[in-house]
Structures are given as C-alpha cells and as structure tokens.
UniProtKB/TrEMBL annotation:
Keyword annotations of the record: Flavoprotein, FMN, Monooxygenase, Oxidoreductase
Protein name (Swiss-Prot/TrEMBL): LLM class flavin-dependent oxidoreductase
Compositional bias of kind Low complexity: 382-403
Annotated spans, Disordered: 252-282, 378-411
Positions with biased composition (Basic and acidic residues): 268-282
Domain Luciferase-like, residue spans: 22-332
InterPro entries: Luciferase-like_dom, Luciferase-like_sf, SsuD_RutA_monooxygenase
One Pfam family from the record: Bac_luciferase
Domain of life of the source: Bacteria
C-alpha cells in the first residue's frame, strides 16, 4: 500500500476559515470529494469526535459522489460491537465496488471527550479494548466459518457474517496513537499505523519502537502513514508569506472565538491529559517554529492540542521532496489536508500531487519499499540514490534568499 490521502469535512471551515453552513452540507461534501478525486488523491479520511456527524453516512455520500476515491472512516472502539462494524464495512465495500473502504481506530486520548459519548473507561482500558476489538473485527471480516471469542471486553459465540469484503483482506485496519499502550496495540494489530507530522528523527524513533512490537508479534505487513498540512506556493517566498497570512487569520479567528470546528477537541480541564500525539506536537512547537528546514509548527503553537496541525512549507517540488525523505524511514502513505480546504486541494492537484506521485512511483518501480534506505529524486522519476540520508536525492538546499525569507516565521 502506498497512498496519498486527504481529509473530508461535512461543512466548510478550518482554523483560518470560520465554519459556515449547516453541520452537514451535502453540496460541500460532493464538491470537496470530487475535488480530491480530480486532484489525484487515493483516499480521504473522515474524522471523528463526540460532536461530529456520522462518519459512515458521510462516507456513503463521498463514495456515491465519486468513481474511484476511497474512504478511511475513523471511529472509536467501544460504541459499536466489532461484529456489527464488520458487517457495516463489508456492506459498504460491496456497494462501492470493492477496495474503496478502510477503517481507522482511535482509542481516545481525552477522558472528557470519551465521557461525552458515555464512556468512562480509563485510557489503558481503552487501548486493551481496542486490541480485542481489532482481533474480533479482523475475524468478522475474514472468517468464512462461525467463530467464538472470549476476552475481557468482548465475548461472541458462533459469530458469523453473510457479507465479507469484495477482495480478501480488502478493508485495511488503520490505527493511531503514540503512548506506550498505543504502540503495544497498534504494533501488533494494525495494517497501517498513522503518525503525525513530526521531524524525521522523531518519526524514525517512533517507527523503530512500533516495528519492534510488530516483529515480536509477527505483524510483518505493517506499514506507516504520516499526516501533514502543506502550505505550497509557486515560489518558496510565496509559500512562507502564505503561511504567515494563515497564522494571522487563525490568530484573529481564535481571538474572536470564530474557530469553532466540530472535529477540534473542546478545551480540556487543567488536570486532564490529551492524546500523547497532540502533546508531542506541542512540545516540538514550543522548541521552535520550524524543524527540518520546512516543517512548520506555527498553527500548532497557536491553537494548542488538537489534531495534526504541523505542515511542510515550500514549492510543490520542495514539499514533495521533503515528504519523500520520510520514505526511507518507513513512511509509505501521506495524509495531507489544508487550511484553505477546497483551494488547497485544487492547488495541490497542480503543484504538489504530481511531484509526490512521481516520487512514489519512482521508488516502487526500482523495488524500493519504504524503509530500505533507497531514495529517488521525485523531479526525475527514473533516478534512484542508494543509502540516502536526510535530504539526499531531493532539493534539500535552497538559495540563501529563500532561506532567510519570512525569518519571523522560522525563528
């Protein structure tokens, strides 16, 4: 699996663009989904929170509005039985032609957020529950015979389903989380482990820890995804100017109380921990605004703990090259979402996705699986550089004027 993913919302709105329209805007969903397909995305994430519209219904609308675009439906184990979810997923897989449906498991990093849906389990309990959930779900999706399961959280007897994925193993199980419990569960049970946009050194460290679990438990097919929110311009100076404008608009919206977004966690109590992945981004943001030359944490610092909020800044070629530097660390899937939601998707279809796709194809064409230390120059799909270090085979160096552009953002 090597995919480029976007993210769909049920209404227009981001940190830089106050939410407008109804909570479920069918026209927006249709247009946003088709824009992703036209831009060359493989799949779109449908997020989850205690206040957001139902992800399965949104997924159905996306699949109906497009011809090939896939969906990645986020959910939290504990609210629907895994056998029921298996039938829902398999049914949607058949209705959409097969191979377009995936599911993302979020155990829940915030106690208060879980309580809003009536779940008062502890964080360790939630991860243990997710482990059992994924085991039962995989059996429900793949087993042609009735099965039993007895765990601490789930017990089923003679479970059987008349509907299975169109293609065997055709509904990938994604997973997110970076706590020790998360690494233990995701490393053993996930098909794809989703990571936030951190500097390369931190991503390499996390992948090594997760792979150690995967190897120990026999999960040899595990792959990785990384999320980022690119800011792309025709020139690097233009990109950094756009990032600065986004930061100013987000600050204005935050001060005016206009950044309301149903997918953003509500403000937590002072003694409540948020998800480890969000805390890690905050620590990085308060170290400095820019890591690895162009990974920007300005919005991250401003908005506080929430979903993925760091992003790579530069021209489309520069951003693609920066993302592909994660390939030799083991990242094979890239989830990108913007601040100017529709406009960014349309721009990326012209300026970013072609370069990123070319780099992926180049690596796959020379047998370069993610993490094997081979990198190819995405501006020249036929090239490959063995033993690449960070920046090798990409436009790691830019002229001095570009390096000093928007110095206030990069301090």
């Amino acid at each position: 699996m090597a995919e480029i993913l976007g993210m769909i919302s049920s209404q227009r709105g981001s940190e830089t663009d106050p939410v407008t329209g109804p909570a479920v805007d069918p026209g927006w969903i249709r247009d946003f989904a088709r824009a992703h397909e036209e831009a060359g995305f493989d799949r779109v994430l449908i997020g989850y929170s205690s206040a957001s519209p139902d992800g399965f219904a949104i997924a159905s609308a996306v699949l109906q509005a497009t011809e090939r675009l896939g969906v990645l439906i986020a959910h939290r184990p504990g609210f629907v039985a895994p056998t029921v979810l298996g039938r829902k997923l398999a049914t949607l897989d058949h209705l959409s032609g097969g191979g377009r449906v995936a599911v993302h498991h979020i155990s829940g990093g915030s106690d208060a957020e879980q309580a809003r849906d009536g779940d008062y389990s502890t964080k360790p309990e939630r991860y243990s529950r997710t482990a059992e959930f994924m085991q039962v779900l995989r059996k429900a999706l793949n087993s042609s015979e009735p099965f039993d399961y007895a765990g601490d959280f789930y017990r089923v007897a003679d479970a059987n389903s008349a509907v299975h994925p169109v293609h065997p193993g055709g509904i990938p199980l994604w997973f997110g989380g970076l706590s020790e419990d998360a690494v233990r569960v995701g490393g053993e049970h996930a098909d794809v482990y989703a990571l936030f946009g951190e500097p390369k050194a931190q991503v390499a460290d996390r992948i090594a820890a997760i792979r150690a679990v995967a190897e120990r438990t026999g999960n040899h097919g595990l792959s990785f995804s990384m999320s980022t929110r690119p800011v792309v311009g025709v020139t690097e100076d233009e990109a950094w100017a756009k990032a600065e404008a986004y930061l100013e608009q987000a600050a204005h919206n935050k001060a005016a109380g206009a950044e309301d977004n149903p997918l953003r966690l509500r403000h937590k109590a002072s003694d409540e921990r948020t998800a480890e992945s969000a805390d890690r981004l905050q620590r990085l943001a308060h170290q400095r605004d820019v890591h690895d030359e162009r990974l920007w944490f300005g919005i991250t610092k401003l908005m506080g703990p929430q979903g993925n909020s760091s992003g790579h800044v530069g021209t489309g070629q520069q951003v693609a090259d920066s993302l592909l530097e994660y390939w030799h660390l083991g990242v094979q899937n890239f989830l990108i979402r913007g601040f100017d939601q529709l406009g960014d998707v349309q721009d990326w279809g012209e300026h970013l996705i072609p370069h990123l796709r070319a780099g992926i194809v180049a690596r796959l064409s020379v047998g370069c699986g993610a993490g094997n230390g081979v990198a190819a120059d995405s501006s020249n799909p036929g090239s490959a550089i063995v033993g690449s270090s960070a920046g090798a085979g990409s436009r790691a160096s830019v002229d001095s004027s570009a390096r000093t552009a928007s110095a206030g953002l990069r301090s």
